[in-house]
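Hello again, I could really use a second opinion on something today. I've dropped the whole record in just underneath, so have a look.
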Amino acid sequence: MGETSQHGTVGTHRRDAQGTRRRLLDAAAELFAERGYERATVRDIAARAGANQALLFRYFGTKKALFGEVMARGGQEQLRTTPADRLFEVALRGMLAGGGPGADRSLEVCLRSIGGSDEIADALRGLGEEYAEVLATLSASEDGGLRGDLALSWLLGIGLMRVVVGKEPLASADPDTVCTLAVGALRHLLEDLSTDGATGGATDG
C-alpha cells in the first residue's frame, strides 16, 4: 500500500511539474510577444504563470534558455508541420490573429525583440534564415534564395506595421482580406505558393 501511495505521489508531482513548466512557457510566449525579450522580466513571466522565479530557473536555467524554448516550441514546430506552399499564409495568419487562442506568436516575438540584446540575436537570425530557406524552395529560379528573403521581409514587414506600429488601415484590416491580397500578390515572386486557403479563413498549422 505504501509503495502504491509513493508511486502515486511521484506521478502527481511529475504532472504538476509538467503543468507548471507549460504555464511558464505560455506566459513567456505571451510576454515576449507583448514586450519583446528585453522588457519581459523573469518576475513578470513567473507571476503570470502563477509560479515563482525559483521554479522558472529550475526548469529553464536562464531567461535566454527560456526564450530559446519558446521559439523552438512555436517557430520550429510551425516549420516542421506546415507544408512549404502554405508557410507564408499560416505564419501571416498567426501574426494577424493577435494572440488569439492557439495562435503561434513566434514571429511577433521576433518583431518585438529585434534590435535587442546580442544574447538572442543568433536565435532570431537562425529562425529567420530557416523560414527564408523554406520559402526559397517555392521558386525554381536561380535567384530563389533572394526571393525567399524578399518573401520573409514582406511577411515581417506586414507584421511590423500591423502589430508593432499599429499603422491604419492595416492594423484593423480583416485578416482574410490581408491574406487574400498578400498571398495572391506574392505568387509573382514564389511560383509554387499555394492560394487554396487565401480566401477561406484557413488556420492550418
Q: What stands out?
A: The CA atoms of residues 94 and 105 lie 6 Å apart. The radius of gyration is 19 Å. Confidence is low (pLDDT under 50) at residues 199-205.
